[in-house]
Every structure is written in C-alpha cells, then in structure tokens.
C-alpha cells in the first residue's frame, strides 16, 4: 500500500479494480492524474459524472448508449432481417469498427458456463428467441468467441432456434489476413484447413 491520504488511497483502490490495472498501474495512473489535475483529472471526473447520469442499456439489443433504443437499433438504414449475436458490448463495438455488418445486433451478456452457474436465463438468450419469433429475422449470425464456452453457447442457440425457420450461421474462422502460419495456434490452423476454399 502507499502512504497516500485516505481519499487518494480509495481512488487507487477503485482504479485497481478496472480490467488491465493492478495496484501498481492504478497508483501510477492516479499520480499522473494528480500531476495533471486541470488538463486530465477534472475533464475525466466530468465525463464520468455525465456518463453515470446518461448511460443506459438498449432494451432491444443490449448495447450501451445514451438513448433507448440505441442509435444502431433506431437507424432505418440497417437491415432488419440480419441479426448478429455477440457475447459483450465490446464485441459489438469491435464489429462496428470494421463497418462490414449493416444489420442489427443482439448482446448476450456473456456465455453459458456450468462452472460459473451461468445458464440461458442469466444471459439474454430468451430475449433472442423472442426477437427471432416475431418473424422479421431471416438470418442469425453467431459472432461468438472461438472458445469452448462460445462454441457451447452457439450450439445451444442453434438448437433453440432450430424450429424457427431462420438460417443460423457463424463467422468464418482461420488464418487472419497478414497472418503467418508459424505464429498461429494449432486450433486456428485446423479451423482454417477445414474451412478451405478453391483458390
């Protein structure tokens, strides 16, 4: 622990709870903010206070924004028949950075995990089944992480939607553009080999 005053120590403890920050990194970040109070700390405190008041989850897709429904769900230019299912909001934002998908999203809020007692009802799977049941969606794209939990969740969703008449697809997996085989893991190479196509 540091010899900082109690209030600063509390700020360090709170910062240390953030992903990617441990106690030492949090201490460095807080000291930097204290050195740059006017330029960094005051604007950060204002932005945090504003986001606390304004941030909300979209009741349709689960995205985080400042309006409900979110801007993506409100956009009339987006395809309403394609629904991309992602694990987290950060996955949705990553898909949006690529600007390749022009449909709608559904954020699950995680993956199924028997070890962590996370079943379908702890996720937004019932809401997904209900969205598909309204008859406007023709394709559900599973954009889940290539993990055991992601695969388990994908299989569960595919089974849950089996009688809905929608097409359930998944993202291609394999060698990334610019990837070198020597740096890839065995699972990625195996997936790429299985998904091979005519040259």
Helical residues, percent = 40-55%
Give the overall form.
Answer: globular
Radius of gyration: 21 Å
* Spatial order of the strands forming the largest sheet: 4-3-5-6
Note the run of SSEs as H and E. HHHEEHEHEHEHEH
The percentage of residues in β strands lies in 5-15%
Give the termini distance in whole angstroms: 59 Å
Main sheet: strands, sense, barrel: 4 strands, parallel
How would you sum up this structure, described in words?
- By secondary structure, the chain is α/β, with parallel strands linked by helices.
- Helix content is 44%, strand content 11%.
- It contains 8 helices and 6 strands, in the order αααββαβαβαβαβα.
- It has helices at 6-16, 23-35, 37-54, 71-74, 89-98, 125-133, 148-160, 186-194; strands at residues 56-57, 64-65, 82-86, 104-107, 139-142, 167-170.
- The strands form 2 sheets. A 4-stranded parallel beta sheet has the order 4-3-5-6. A two-stranded antiparallel sheet has the order 1-2.
- The model has no long low-confidence stretch (mean pLDDT 92).
């Amino acid at each position: 622990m540091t010899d900082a005053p109690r209030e600063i120590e509390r700020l360090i403890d709170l910062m240390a709870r953030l992903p990617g920050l441990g106690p030492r990194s949090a201490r460095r970040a807080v000291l930097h903010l204290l050195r740059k109070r006017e330029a960094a700390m005051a604007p950060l405190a204002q932005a945090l206070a504003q986001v606390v008041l304004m941030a909300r989850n979209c009741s349709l897709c689960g995205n985080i924004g400042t309006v409900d429904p979110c801007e993506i769900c409100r956009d009339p230019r987006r395809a309403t028949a394609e629904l991309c299912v992602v694990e987290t909001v950060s996955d949705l934002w990553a898909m949006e950075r690529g600007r390749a998908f022009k449909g709608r999203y559904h954020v699950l809020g995680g993956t199924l995990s028997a070890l962590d007692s996370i079943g379908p009802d702890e996720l937004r799977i019932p809401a997904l089944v209900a969205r598909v049941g309204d008859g406007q969606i023709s394709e559900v794209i599973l954009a889940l992480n290539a993990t055991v939990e992601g695969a388990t969740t994908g299989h569960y969703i595919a089974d849950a939607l089996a009688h809905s008449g929608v097409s359930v697809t998944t993202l291609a997996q394999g060698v990334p553009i610019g990837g070198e085989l020597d740096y890839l893991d065995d699972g990625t190479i195996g997936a790429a080999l299985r998904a091979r196509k005519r040259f």
